[in-house]
Amino acid sequence: MAWILLLLAGLLEVVWAFGMKASDGFSRLGWSVVTLIAMLASVGLLALAMRSLPLGTAYAIWTGIGALGAFLVGILVLGEAATPMRLFSAALILAGLVGLKLSSGS
């Protein structure tokens, strides 16, 4: 269950990262509210997941899901560049996340 909570927390991190961009520096109320709610929910779910997962593993995977998710949203939704070096770097992050999960023992 902790891994599911951590996945949801990471996905909500993607939501708040996109929401922060869409809020235009918190100048758009609707997106600002979405951002703040997603932030609180993401951190709350991370805290619940950390009840049974190691700190280093949980935090690294949470931020990694957020980083990779925001990276993909940037490319797929916002039209950011998908250069070979950027894609390779994202693949390295993914490899690190998989390595942390496989070595966590939970």
UniProtKB/TrEMBL annotation:
Subcellular location: Cell membrane
Leader sequence residues: none
Keywords from the UniProt entry: Cell membrane, Membrane, Transmembrane, Transmembrane helix, Transport
Its membrane topology: Multi-pass membrane protein
Molecular functions (GO terms): transmembrane transporter activity
Cellular component GO terms held in the UniProt record: plasma membrane
Gene Ontology terms: biological process: xenobiotic detoxification by transmembrane export across the plasma membrane
Main location: membrane
Chain ranges passing through the membrane: 33-50, 57-79, 85-103
Domain of life, source organism: Bacteria
Keyword Cell membrane part of the UniProt annotation: yes
The family this protein is said to belong to: Belongs to the drug/metabolite transporter (DMT) superfamily. Small multidrug resistance (SMR) (TC 2.A.7.1) family. Gdx/SugE subfamily.
PANTHER family: GUANIDINIUM EXPORTER, SMR FAMILY PROTON-DEPENDENT DRUG EFFLUX TRANSPORTER SUGE
Protein name: Guanidinium exporter
